Amino acid sequence: MGCLLKFNNVVKIYGSDSVALDNVSLEINEGEFVSVIGPSGSGKTTFLRSINKLIPITKGEIYLDGENISDKKGRALRMCRRKIGMVFQNYNLVYRLSVIQNVLHGRLGYMTGLKGILGRYSEKDKKTAVDILGELGLQDLIYNRASDLSGGQKQRVGIARSIMQNPQLLLCDEPIASLDPSSSKVIMDMLYSMIKKRNIACIVNLHQVDVAKKYSTRIIGLSKGKIVFDGKPEELTDNMIEKIYGTSLDNLMLGGNEDA
Ligand code: ADP
Ligand code: MG
């Protein structure tokens, strides 16, 4: 499998001295399912958002599909971003619009400005949106307003929108942090099956270690902006978890260390 994403000594410093990514180097291959774990403030969001340049890095290079995204601007940057879908903790839907309109927004990166502004989606795009919504069990809610959905349903729309974009890489920042355990399981199962079917690589920030272990082929542990673990789920020992979180496992089980 080819290398899809490469970090070369990436440093991110906020302000003059807040180091969020401390010399991060790694490669992620096509189709990999990678979970990123680590305590609050360890750099997970910064890592994820630097990939599509939502956050500009301070030093180093980030290559996507062989292209250095760090120095791209304008149209070239938009072309790179098209390959990267995003799923957010708080869904980021347009709540006054319908479910299908939100999903069609995934196509905006492929449309000329005016067509996008006027919402002139092709019949093919509309059919694809309906099909994806069907796969996610939302076929009966296509014309409902996004504001009327439950949290789990909103996140399914978020996933549908990202898949509609036809990405090579999907970035998910705490996609289940606002959901109850049963909706979380539904969302992770759906996310997993959608990306496996399409061979999309996925990077998911999670604070639930058990979820990371269950779904991913690879886990990256961040602590204070450094990669302190990079391996298979079965290699992630209790000792290593304590090292990543800087606290005992007992504390972790009590949920004592995290923001939800
Ligand atoms: P995580 O997602 O793991 O909680 P973040 O990437 O949000 O971690 O944050 C990493 C570090 O960078 C933290 O110390 C945080 O306080 C700092 N940080 C994040 N965003 C900003 C910002 N916009 N300005 C200044 N510091 C920031
Ligand atoms: Mg975060």
Element layout with pairings:
Elements: E1 3-14, E2 18-29, E3 33-37, H1 44-51, E4 59-64, E5 67-68, H2 74-81, E6 84-88, H3 99-104, H4 113-118, H5 123-135, H6 151-164, E7 169-173, H7 181-198, E8 201-205, H8 209-215, E9 218-223, E10 226-231, H9 238-245, H10 249-253
Parallel strand pairs: 3-8, 3-9, 6-7, 7-8
Antiparallel strand pairs: 1-2, 1-4, 4-5, 9-10
Magnesium ion is lined by residues 44-45.
Low-confidence stretches are 256-260
Number of DSSP-assigned strands = 10
Across the major sheet, the strand order is 6-7-8-3-9-10
Gyration radius, rounded: 18 Å
The distinct bound ligands, ions and cofactors come out as: adenosine-5'-diphosphate, magnesium ion
Main β-sheet: number of strands, strand sense, barrel status? 6 strands, mixed
Terminal-residue CA separation: 35 Å
> How would you state the average pLDDT, rounded?
93
Q: How much of the residues is beta strand, in percent? A: 15-25%
Structural class: alpha/beta
Architecture overview:
The chain is an alpha/beta fold and 260 residues long. 36% of the residues lie in helices and 25% in strands. The chain has 10 helices and 10 strands. α7 links the parallel β7 and β8 (201-205). α5 (123-135) packs across α6. The longest helix is centred in the last third of the chain and has 18 residues, at 181-198. It is globular and about 50 Å long.
